[in-house]
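User: Please run a holo structure prediction.
Assistant: Happy to. Please share the sequence and the ligand.
User: Here you go; the ligand is histidyl-adenosine monophosphate.
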Amino acid sequence: MFKRVPGTKDVLPDEAGQWQAIEAASRDTFSLYNYHEIRTPVIEEAALFNRTLGLTAEIVQKQMFLIHNQQDVYVLRPEGTASIARSYLENNLDKTSGFIKLYYIGPMFRLERPQKGRLRQFHHIGCEAIGSQEAILDIEVISLAARLLKNFAVSDYKIKINSLGCPKDKQTLSLNLKQGLQKEKQNLCADCQLRLENNILRILDCKNESCQKIVKTLALSNTHLCPDCLDHFKEVTDGLSSLNIAFDVEPQLVRGLDYYNRTVFEFTHSNLGSQDAIGAGGRYNNLIKELGGPDIGGIGFAFGMERLLLASKITGEKPLSRMVYLITLGKTAKNAGIKILNQLRLSGIPSDMDYLNRSLKAAMRAANDSGARYVLILGEDELKKNVISLRDMSNSTQREINIEELTEELKC
Ligand code: HAM
């Protein structure tokens, strides 16, 4: 028997309700903030991510699902931000609308070692607001993420926030770190010894205990920020406080992708073990320019659906179903039954029937298991009288009604 690929997941019907509830809450909340949906392909040119996430980013180095074509190298997209920036430029959205707020829901792919909360195919619920560098947008985007979490029934989460500053400030930060970490080189893990040369910021979020201990001794603060970036960050933190959004400033939070600058943030949840980030995001003021577009800023975030589900109390239970379940007895009744179902569905009444020619008793059990509110029973006798038996499962009452009156009756 075939098995699913490690690190992927089947969403079975009894889980789908929770997925739908989270997706519906996302769409409602994004609409409330005037975000519009964008859907981009799941395959992109690999070069798009090499260029925007950076060649030293872990995703690019180790986690790309590459597809080698004759001349091209494609990849199953590992994240959405670069794809949306590509689409924004390719479709001239910078020329038609300039500032735009977009949201997306869909699968992402990373060749990771699977574990709880870490999959190879996972799903992002994310958004990107492109075309403004204003701190007010950072405040709105982070408050939107907090509103989404409220609507997903996720509580007990933390918001961590930091500012990387402009590209020059990022360089200063890297230099400061290099000075502090060089003398500890031999005590860093093998990965971080390499990072010291090619991706020093990533050392700050290494999970290795000995690296974490060393990082703690660095007494990081925001001294790398220039006056403009410092002002921007203060505006953001003041704005969040004015909206009563609690957050911790974490100088250690750097995010490992090249495109980030200025504000970066992460949402963590205490119940999730080592993979505790339920979502993350930040500003990318140079991304659009890097891809050949105008010099405009952008900011966004993405939640990981599978991790949200581990943290969410959303049930996905539907309100009492108005489903109608038809049981027919005999061939003539079956043929008449399919017409009745057709009529009910035309009138927007959800309905289903027994397809297995079960006995009345077994079919009643199946109707009950399906959660149907009403059961219709149609046999040869009923057909002769042009009536059908209607059983209300909520109070176990049963009566015969005229077939022509059925739709009106069930509509009320
Ligand atoms: P990211 O931090 O790589 O950011 O991913 C965002 C979220 O996706 C994570 O916080 C986590 O919840 C979830 N996630 C990531 N990898 C996995 C995995 N292997 N299995 C399950 N869940 C996972 C980004 O991708 C950025 N594009 C976010 C962003 C949008 N920044 C600006 N705009």
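The longest strand covers residues 100-109.
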